[in-house]
Amino acid sequence: MSEFLTKQTEWHQQAVESDDFKLQVGRPQSDENWRALAFDVNKKLQLNESERLLDVGCGSGLLLSHLAQNCASIAGIDYAEAMVKKAKTLLPQGEFHCGEANQLPFATNSFDKLLSYSIFHYFPSEQYALDVINEMIRVVKPGGMILLGDLLDAEYEAQIKGSSDLDYEQQIPYIHRYSQWRFYDLQNLIGRLEDTVRRTEILAQPSGFALSGYRKDIRLWL
Question: d(Cα 149, Cα 82) in Å, to the nearest integer?
Answer without folding.
Answer: 23
